[in-house]
């Protein structure tokens, strides 16, 4: 597995960045996010793919900074129970 990941490092890191970016913005990755993913991956390569370079790239990316997120419709939101509200109020 290690040999496979090392031989396809760019693809692995690109997929990892895609998943992390999607999670961080709270929605699926769209076609307009792909340039940011490529830039993050390219910049991370110059820093030997350090975690800090991946996270910094995501936080500074346009999808993350512009705050384009998918909101959950109110009928799908989890409602708190009276017991949960009581605990929070204490």
Q: How would you state the average pLDDT, rounded?
A: 82
Indicate the low-confidence ranges by residue numbers.
84-88
Helix % is 55-70%
Query: So what's the overall shape?
Result: globular
Q: Could you state the order of secondary-structure elements as H and E? A: HHHHHH
Give the CA-CA distance, first to last residue.
50 Å
Number of alpha- plus pi-helical segments: 6
Please count the beta strands (DSSP E, at least 2 residues each).
Answer: 0
**Radius of gyration of CA atoms, rounded to a whole number:** 18 Å
Strand percent estimate: under 5%
* Class by SSE composition: mainly alpha
The largest sheet is: none
In short:
This protein has 90 residues and is mainly alpha-helical.
What does this structure look like?
The chain has 90 residues and is mainly α. It is 64% helix and 0% strand. The protein is built from 6 helices and no strands. Helix 2 crosses helix 3 and helix 3 runs antiparallel to helix 4.
